[in-house]
Structure formats: structure tokens, C-alpha cells
Amino acid sequence: MARTQQSRTFPQPGHNHDRCAVQALARAEALCDAKRLRFTSVRRRVLATVWASHAPIGAYDILAQLNAGGGRNAPMAVYRALDFLLAHGLVHRVASLNAFVGCAHPGEAHSHKLGSQLLICRACGSVVEFDGRAVSAAVARAAPGFAIESEVIEISGLCPHCRRLTRRKAIARD
Amino acid sequence: MARTQQSRTFPQPGHNHDRCAVQALARAEALCDAKRLRFTSVRRRVLATVWASHAPIGAYDILAQLNAGGGRNAPMAVYRALDFLLAHGLVHRVASLNAFVGCAHPGEAHSHKLGSQLLICRACGSVVEFDGRAVSAAVARAAPGFAIESEVIEISGLCPHCRRLTRRKAIARD
DNA sequence: CTCGTAAACGTTATAGTATAACGTATCAAT
DNA sequence: ATTGATACGTTATACTATAACGTTTACGAG
Ligand SMILES: [Zn+2]
Ligand SMILES: [Zn+2]
Ligand SMILES: [Zn+2]
Ligand SMILES: [Zn+2]
């Protein structure tokens, strides 16, 4: 299988993102079908908007996209759809940005059932989930006596691609 | 030294919290004095309000406290003071709650210069920082090629004290 | 097929969080 | 005293999220 949003690596700058989006929608459809959930029009459109890129998007930006063609949706429609998508693991909330991003591994045995573990590139905006099992284990060891119920782990910095660009610029300035 | 907010353990339910607050203010004053920073009246009052408890408080709740005696401060005053306090490590932002909490180790060699690593009790609301050096190391190992710049690590659950209470209730129901 | 129920949705209003922009006051160094 | 930088006051506005209500739609039981 070609490398799509499935992987836990940052997406190449010029990758064919249509494949990511199409695949994410297909997976969501399959998951809802399997669980007898209603993957309604609003929910599908919101998920598609979230998957328009690998960068988090705010609820009101989703709303604007939804209404771009003359729609008259209210904020509630978006928030309700997001509640559904969050509840079933199809999107993640990015607390540090008050925004939302598609989940690349819905339904899979998330090592991180407790929450999301995200890498956020401040340059290109892309977000990927990383395998945080070792991190969760370290957290558990660091918090003896504390009954962990959920984790918000959001790491910001530069993804490999943007780091390369930054270095080139720095060299060019010399 | 008696156990105050200095420690990385959850505060006892009935502890003498005045000591925590007084000590936090004194430390802030000393830190600002050393760095030639202006620890102005608004900043002091905002920090004191944040330290009114070990639970995070929202900016508008701080504002309400500030204006409780008939003050006429605007939200900007609070946000500007919080910006200052955040910039100098005197408070932490709790992204998952859109709220703020006092830093118990200002100026110390935070293992976590990159961000905050917090345990949040959903029952009593108390927040403590934990020693996240091992966690940061695990994050770095889990994100090869990613240039980490900041970390938001917020773990929610039940603190030891509240966990004990919950268990007692569960037993009582039997 | 009709009915009854629960889920989803539409709509309006409101609550809660954060910043922009501009002028004034204060501080500290020359 | 002059001056430049920092902090503050004030107003307005942007952005994020939920409450509460009634209506519609989906779907299984009978
Ligand atoms: Zn893509
Ligand atoms: Zn990037
Ligand atoms: Zn205390
Ligand atoms: Zn507690």
C-alpha cells in the first residue's frame, strides 16, 4: 500500500492528498456501517472538511466551508457533528489550538485509548499521531497513586520536512 | 521545610493553603526582583487570585475576583498580566481547560523548560506538576526527526486523596 | 404498514474565551 | 528635563462553545 495518512510519519509536502481524504471517508463509512451508526450528510461533510488537509481546523472554519456554497448551517450543526466524530474516534481535538484534525487510525487498537498523542508542525501545520505507548508508560510511572483517566499530549515543533527547509534558509543566509 | 505547594504531590484536602499562596507570592517577588521585572499591582493581584487554590481558574473568573470589591478592570488587564506571568514561568496555561494555574517551581531548573506537564484531578480540581523528564525522553524517542519546541502534557484522572474517597463510597454501597 | 420512540436536526439565543487597536500614564536612564 | 520603552485604560470586536426548544427523520415492534 502506498504511503497515505495511515502512516505515523509526516505527509510529504507535495503528496497526493486526495487519496488521504478519500481513504479517510471510506474508513469512516465502513466503521459506521459496522457499528450501525448513522453517517449522515452533515457528519460526512464535516469529516470531509476536516480531512481537507493534515492541519487542524477550527469549528467556525469548518462552518464556513460547509456554507461556502450558500448553505445556512448554524454552529450547532458543526459542533454536533464534531461531538459524534470525536465520540467514535474519527477526529481528534487539538486542545492547544482549539481545533480538530482527522484521526488516521479510527477503530484500530489505539495504544492511546486514553487520549490523543500528537506531533504538531508549527511551520506547515501538519499533525500526526505518534506511537505513544512508551510515553504513556512513562507517564504512569511518573504519577504513582494517580488514577489516569485521559491524556492530552500535544508536542509542537518542526516536522522533518520543514526542518530541512529551515536549515537550507539558514545556510543560504550565511 | 513543611510540605507546601513546593512538592510535586497532591495537596492534602485540609492543608493550610495560606502558606502556599504566601510563599508563591514571595517567590514571584524575589524572582522579579532578581530579573529586574516589574511586579506591578495588577500582576500581583492576578497571581494571588490564581493561587487562591490549586485548581485552575479561568481568565474571566480571575477578572471577577479582581473586580469583586468594585473594581473596573477590563479583560485585557487580566490577559496582559497572564501573558507576563506565563512568559516568566509564574503560571501555567491548562490548555485542556482554558484556564490557568500557579507554577509551584518558578525559576527552578524545570525539567520541563519546553512546557508544562500536569496532573489534573477531575474530582477536587487540584493540579500538580510532575517530574516529566522520563516522559520527555520517551517523547523524543517516539518522534525521531521531529524538532521538539514545546510540550503540552495534561493528564486527567483522580488524585490519591479523591481516589480513596471514591473507593470508600464504592465499598459503602455494597 | 402504522405506530411509538429515540436519534438527529434546525433555530435562536446566549455564554465563555481571547485579541486588536489606540491613546495615556509611568518608569528609568541619559 | 528629555526621551524611549514598558505598562496600563478603554472600547470594540473576534473567536469558541453550549443551552434550550421544537420539528423531522430513521427504524424496530407489533
Ligand atoms: Zn494527505
Ligand atoms: Zn512541517
Ligand atoms: Zn495549597
Ligand atoms: Zn482530587
Write structural notes for this entry.
- Two copies of one chain form a homodimer.
- Chain A is an alpha+beta fold and 174 residues long.
- Chain A has a single domain (17-173), classed as Orthogonal Bundle (Arc Repressor Mutant, subunit A).
- Chain A is built from six helices and five strands; from the N terminus they run ααααββββαβα.
- Chain A is globular and about 50 Å long.
- The mean pLDDT of chain A is 91.
- Chain A binds chain B through residues 10, 95-96, 119, 121-122, 130-132, 134-135, 137-139, 141-143, 145-160, 163, and chain B through 10, 95-96, 119, 121-122, 130-132, 134-135, 137-139, 141-143, 145-160, 163.
- The structure holds zinc ion (4 copies).
- Chain A binds a DNA duplex (30 and 30 nucleotides) through residues 38, 40, 42-43, 58-60, 72-77, 79-80, 84, 98.
Helix content of chain A: 40-55%
The parts of chain A where pLDDT drops under 50 for at least 5 residues are: none
Q: Which fold name corresponds to the CATH topology of chain A?
A: Arc Repressor Mutant, subunit A
- Say how many strands of chain A there are: 5
CATH level 1 name of chain A = Mainly Alpha
Brief digest:
With 174 residues, the first copy, chain A, is α+β, with helices and mostly antiparallel strands. Chain A has helices spanning 17-35, 41-50, 59-66, 75-87, 133-142, 160-173, and strands at 91-94, 99-102, 115-121, 127-129, 147-158.
